[in-house]
């Protein structure tokens, strides 16, 4: 594998992992989750948790590290969405 | 690697890939992108594009397939967000 290919992989992983930070911050700031899909965050958070379990199973530190961060960010966004959804139903 | 670990990996990949489908459908239906983070979708779409380039570089069909789908879904959500952001500025 060329170094450039490896670097592209690392940048890709960093971007897709860190991208959830501005969304989590926006959601925390505005508490608005109207246009966020509950299905998306349910599926995504579950998927990232499974990636984390997969990473632990094969002892891959990069997978564990990236998915731990993404899991916490996705879970915080999902929590706000569930809270707002339940509140709006009342 | 145990078969169960591999299965967990496949389920994880399927969930994180397909999770963007309900978000894309919701955004297409409501055209509402108020609580979506422009930074998130800019970083995420760029990251997924780099994953796609990485997949092509190492000729990994699974990475190419999953990221092609995610790229199209994320790009459609990002396009709506950019359109709404530009419209609201006018």
TrEMBL record, chains A, B:
One GO molecular-function entry: sugar transmembrane transporter activity
Membrane recorded as keyword: yes
Keyword field contains Transmembrane: yes
Keywords: Membrane, Transmembrane, Transmembrane helix
One Pfam family, short name: PQ-loop
Gene Ontology cellular-component terms listed: membrane
Predominant place of localization: membrane
Residues annotated as transmembrane: 7-26, 38-56, 62-83
Membrane topology: Multi-pass membrane protein
Places the protein is found: Membrane
NCBIfam families: SemiSWEET_2 (NF037968)
Name assigned to this protein: Glutathione synthetase
Lineage, highest ranks first: Bacteria, Pseudomonadati, Pseudomonadota, Gammaproteobacteria, Methylococcales
